[in-house]
Amino acid sequence: MSKLYQVSNNDFQSFLNNVVTPLFPDGLTVFDTNGQYLDSTGTIVEEKSKSISLFFNDTQQTKTFSSCLLPGC
Question: Do residues 30 and 51 lie in contact, with contact meaning Cβ atoms separated by under 8 Å?
């Protein structure tokens, strides 16, 4: 499993509590998932992942908020 991009459970929960939930108070669900990719040598690298499913009304405000969850916001 790649250690380059690991986030601790505490940091992820803090992100959910302090960033995601206030932006999307209608609700969310977190799934523990398994991801994989090919590294530069063609080896399959497997890693644990998280997926977030957001619940919200389709408004300009939530479109703006959702873009803030992307890198570089």
Answer: yes
